Amino acid sequence: MPRTPLVLLSARLLDPVTGAFLPQTALAVSEGRIRALGDDREIRALADASTTVIDLKGAVVTPGLVDGHLHPVSGAELTQGLDLSGCADLDAVRDALAREVRGLAPGEWLHGWGLDPNVFGDRPLGSAALGPVLDGVPALLQLFDAHSMVASPRALELAGVDGPRTFDQAAEVVCDTAGRPTGLLLEEAACELVERAAPQPTRAERRDRLAAALRGMAAAGLTGGHAMDANGESLALYAELDEAGELPVRLRVAPWCQPGTDADALRALIERQGTGGTLWRTAGVKLFMDGTIDNGTAWLEHPDCHGESTHAFWPDPAAYTRVVGELHRAGVPTATHAIGDAAVRHVLDSVEKALSGGRGGVRHRVEHIETVPDDTLRRFAELDVVASMQPTHCCDFTRADHTDNWSRRLGEERAARAWRCRDLWDSGATVVLGSDWPIAPYPPLGVMAGARHRRPSRDLGQDPHGPEQALTALEALQGMTVSAARAAGDEHEAGRLAVGCRADLTVLAEGPLSTAATDLPDVPVLLTVLDGRPTHRDESL
After folding, report:
1. 537 phi and psi, to 5 degrees?
2. pTM value?
């Protein structure tokens, strides 16, 4: 046997497939793989003077927890600003902004994030509702879904945005009846108009922020993540950290393919597949079929209560179908953002058409799936399409009584179909769980808890939204282990505690299956191991 750099003793090894503890109490790691399972005496005998031996004192070991949908680089940037996610009404937002403005230098930009559209109530969403607090201050306030922003009048002035614009995708500079921008910017192309006018961080600042965010993820128990973009310098930053031995999370990266992508750009996306380093690789392509329900940019089969959410993100949905077909023929899996029922249906139709071409072995995904009718559920399993869900979005951005913006826009019938994790699971679909960080917090125990209790994380005393859609404790664990591995095509080497599998491990003070859902986020993460190397170790070990 090769040299054994790590041995874990006195462990309770949890099988995420059966939910039972393995009879073995120890494991040995070498060359990034689990090389042996056995009792403490057998495994200790494999250690030598160079081996790190950790007595886990009865702690619970699971396969490494993987976030099925996150944005590490953009999240590291976005969360540097003013956190508005805790503001429950407009007065709280104004007070937070006023405190931040007092600390700004003249002309300095204010960046905020996590703004909940529910705080605007029945008022139009825009800079006017915030009052004079931002007068003369260039400010960009990202809404919680990261698909929209509120820009202050001064920010719009500096960016030269003084009226409506035309885009190649479903984006909009929202204007009043006189053609003046209200400050609301919908979707990336519109947001970029103002973002690029703001001062940009240096490369070193971006690197340090990303490294800090990834260390935080490792400390929370994450060993992996499906990164759903490769924007800006993302790939170069991952490579730099990886080469320096400072990448504490294994990343599977899916670059974007936007409307208007030409043949050369599509070919480049295909050729990029499989590139990467030791702990990251480019695998798959991310596309968008719609925006968000809260913004009125989703694609619904029937309009929302404001007559919005009636169009696809791709102006020509047939062009999306052709791109999916070409990627499928090239063996490239796709992950498509599809929130509304019409968007989800079109993605499944497109995948079905691609599969009819005869090539197998390519597993596609749909991201978010916030509301879908009954006849859509079975198609996920029939087409072997992965359902990628973010349960904490339901917990924290909607309400059980349907008084929130998302539910009011949809109406009772569609709001009752919110985040159908249970129905998708029971229909035979592979359901992978994630946070969509920075949209929601990344700690995986919180994500698993939300899938089980479906209550607001800040007020667990409130009623759950759609409790009949809750997953069991074992299913929630599988959603971040077994299902995450299958979604990435790694089921032969990840998501299990078995000899030969990756030594990506999460060690918890208590068992995730026996801990109440409301208590799970507070369970201490004692050790995180990536590729056989501890990336987080609690001082108690």
Report:
1. -140, 120
2. 0.93
